[in-house]
């Protein structure tokens, strides 16, 4: 049974079935035509027997000869109509009443097929009447009565021969198609699959990249596309390996540099109490630069070893999370420049990871608050949400000065998309990754001098 689960096996089975179906569709009209020919031959033999009788003096023959003529024709009686007069030419005693009459002169193809099928499944002892047109113009009509059983047996023998022949043709045709398709399609496809499995085991080995060789255009195009994909993937893996090595080196350098900078920061703290006016003015700037350098080193180390846990999905109330985010961030604000607002219906619920969603909103709200504080102009940070179909659209808006061009160009890219001086852009990069882990998206919907809006779209259900 495993063979028929393969492409070759299923093709072989379908070929046999379709050829057999075609033969069966041919079989029924063939059997109907065979029955028509058999009955027509009986009429012709009956006409010859009637002509033999009419050739005798007084149209009379001995009873023994009459029986022989009827047995030779395979009929019970013969009626010939000439000059509008029906005449019983020769007959035997009727064994039983006539069960059905068939007129072969004006029967349609569908009628012949129907009569043939009825004949195959009718009782064996039926007596039928056949009406036809005499050949060579020897009368207007010829009619005969006969037993249907010999005709049925001849039809069955013919049908069995046709079925055996159809089965043989099906097997031969299926075998030829099977070996042809196996050579033209299955083997090239198997070669591609084998190459994919070999490449999977060691993508770094360039010798395992497929070389297009098929002469079939579609398969050649598939091999070419697979080759391009494997080449691109191998290059990407090599680049990632180099970046990983570089990241390890950067992490080690950042670790040592952080220690050096921390020591320098401690020493620089003493400069603040210097009595030299120049040193006193320079010390805060030096301390700020050192603090930014330490922060950058710590951020690099944190991002390099960050391993996000797999999301744990549960039903949460969005308004509760929004309230917690705003309350926590309100504790971190400096001064009274920033107000917080929440426009989230308590009826909005979704199935998601609570911690991931909390971190996303916290990063977005913190960035919005810091933008307003940096502008030194009072503003508002707002979380609003709405349900659209099977999605929850969450917007974090602020009335700050908008994102600078550099931040827009490198948005969601670590160490490149910082919106404020000294920022690393890690918050947005991590938020983007968390949003995709939850099956959603995070994008910048709008930014201008009147404010910025980030749109977080999450599925309502998992």
From TrEMBL:
It comes from the Bacteria. The chain crosses the membrane at residues 12-32, 162-185. PROSITE patterns: HIS_KIN (PS50109). It is a multi-pass membrane protein. It catalyses: ATP + protein L-histidine = ADP + protein N-phospho-L-histidine. This is histidine kinase. It is an enzyme of class 2 (transferase). It comes from Oceanomicrobium pacificus. InterPro entries: 2C_sensor_his_kinase, HATPase_C_sf, HATPase_dom, His_kinase_dom, HisK_dim/P_dom, HisK_dim/P_sf, Sig_transdc_His_kin-like_C. Keywords: Cell membrane, Kinase, Membrane, Phosphoprotein, Transferase, Transmembrane, Transmembrane helix, Two-component regulatory system, Virulence. Pfam families: HATPase_c. Residues 252-462 form the Histidine kinase domain. GO terms for cellular component: plasma membrane. One of its GO terms (molecular function) is phosphorelay sensor kinase activity. Its main location: membrane. It is found in: Cell membrane. Signal peptide: none annotated. Its EC number is 2.7.13.3.
């Amino acid at each position: 049974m495993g063979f028929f689960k393969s492409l070759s096996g299923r093709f072989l089975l379908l070929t046999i079935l379709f050829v057999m179906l075609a033969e069966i569709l041919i079989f029924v009209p063939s059997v109907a035509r065979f029955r028509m020919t058999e009955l027509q031959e009986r009429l012709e033999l009956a006409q010859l027997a009637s002509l033999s009788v009419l050739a005798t003096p007084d149209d009379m023959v001995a009873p023994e000869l009459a029986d022989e003529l009827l047995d030779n024709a395979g009929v019970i009686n013969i009626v010939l109509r000439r000059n509008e007069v029906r005449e019983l030419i020769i007959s035997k005693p009727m064994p039983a009443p006539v069960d059905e009459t068939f007129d072969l002169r004006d029967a349609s193809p569908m009628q012949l097929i129907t009569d043939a099928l009825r004949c195959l499944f009718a009782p064996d002892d039926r007596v039928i009447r056949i009406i036809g047109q005499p050949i060579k113009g020897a009368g207007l009509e010829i009619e005969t009565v006969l037993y249907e059983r010999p005709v049925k047996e001849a039809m069955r023998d013919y049908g069995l021969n046709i079925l055996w022949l159809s089965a043989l043709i099906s097997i031969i045709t299926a075998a030829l198609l099977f070996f042809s398709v196996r050579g033209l399609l299955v083997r090239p496809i198997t070669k591609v699959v084998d190459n994919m499995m070999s490449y999977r085991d060691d993508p770094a080995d360039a010798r395992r990249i497929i070389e297009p060789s098929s002469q079939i255009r579609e398969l050649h195009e598939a091999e070419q596309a697979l080759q391009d994909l494997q080449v691109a993937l191998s290059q990407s893996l090599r680049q990632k390996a180099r970046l990983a090595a570089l990241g390890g080196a950067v992490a080690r350098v950042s670790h040592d540099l952080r220690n050096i900078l921390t020591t320098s920061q401690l020493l620089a703290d003493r400069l603040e109490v210097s009595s030299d006016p120049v040193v006193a003015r320079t010390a805060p700037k030096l301390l700020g630069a050192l603090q930014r350098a330490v922060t950058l080193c710590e951020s690099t180390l944190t991002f390099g070893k960050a391993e996000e846990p797999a999301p744990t999905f549960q039903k949460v109330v969005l308004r509760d999370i929004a309230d917690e985010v705003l309350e926590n961030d309100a504790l971190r604000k400096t001064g009274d420049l920033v107000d917080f607002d929440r426009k989230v219906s308590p009826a909005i619920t979704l199935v998601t990871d609570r911690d991931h969603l909390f971190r996303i909103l916290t990063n977005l709200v913190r960035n919005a608050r810091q933008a307003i504080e940096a502008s030194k102009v009072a503003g508002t940070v707002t979380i609003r949400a709405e349900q659209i179909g099977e999605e929850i659209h969450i917007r974090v808006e602020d009335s700050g000065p908008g994102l600078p061009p550099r931040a827009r160009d490198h948005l969601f890219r670590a160490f490149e998309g910082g919106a404020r001086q000294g920022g690393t852009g890690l918050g947005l990069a991590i938020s983007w990754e968390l949003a995709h882990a939850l099956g959603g998206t995070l994008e910048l919907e709008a930014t201008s001098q009147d404010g910025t809006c980030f749109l977080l779209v999450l599925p309502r259900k998992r």
